[in-house]
Amino acid sequence: MDYEYDLFLSYSRKNPVEAWVRNHFYPELVQWLDSFAVKPARVFIDRDIEEGDYWPERLEHALRHSKYLVAVWSPQYFASQWCVAEWQSMRHREARLGLALPQAPHGLVYPVVFSDGKSFPAEAQAVQRQDLSTLNYPNIEFKQTTRYLEFVDRMKSICEGLAAWIDERPAPAFDPDWPIVRPMPQRPLDATLPRIE
Question: How far apart are CA 138 and CA 85, in angstroms?
């Protein structure tokens, strides 16, 4: 067994983040990664889950079999139990490996800010990140603006850095028992039933 993916893309499925990732971030990420990386990069995005697949198991499998996590941070990200579980799964892997510490500052998470980094948890605020919050227009019409050229330039820079991670930074040896953090199950709503007398 080995890694199946170089990158696991973790993001909130709420708009405007989802629309921005789908319309702009993911297509540019894949395009430019392939132009910088030695081999075509393998990127997992949850839309690759096929109908009929049990998606929590599929997400866990993909996360466990990914070398690195690209996290698109927003307030919605940190409000999502699923997103935080994906991020914390990779943080637990870093802890097991002794990474993201003063003596070994390189981690396994590549954070990109979609919006509002001021409200992020302290653990996230302490990490160096790429801030694309001034270029976070979700609508497809963004591609027709001059700002999109700035976005593409920023994506090229991000992809050049990620390609260096994939090509030059040795990923930890695959471990089929990488830790996975699961979201807390949601408690069902209390239904008040009318009393029958």
Answer: 25
Question: Please, which residues bridge with residue 130 across strands?
Answer: 112
Please determine, looking at this structure, whether the domain spanning 5-168 carries the CATH number 3.40.50.150.
Answer: no
Distance, in Å, from the CA atom of 118 to the CA atom of 136, rounded to the nearest integer, reads: 16
With a CB cutoff of 8 Å and minimum separation 6, the contacts of 125 are 117
Percent of residues in the chain assigned helix, strand, coil, to nearest 5? 45, 15, 40
CA 149 to chain centre: 23
In angstroms, the Cα distances linking 65 to 138, 176, 184 are 29, 8, 22
Strand partners, 101: 104
Q: How far apart are CA 107 and CA 129, in angstroms?
A: 12
**Cα 97 to the chain's mean position, in Å?**
20
pLDDT attached to residue 100: 85
How far is residue 178 CA from its own chain's centroid? 17
Q: What pTM did the predictor assign?
A: 0.90
DSSP secondary structure letters along 14-72? STTHHHHIIIIIHHHHHHHHHHHSSS---EE-GGGSPTTS-HHHHHHHHHHTEEEEEEE
CA-to-CA distance for 167 and 109, rounded, in angstroms? 16
pLDDT of residue 112: 97
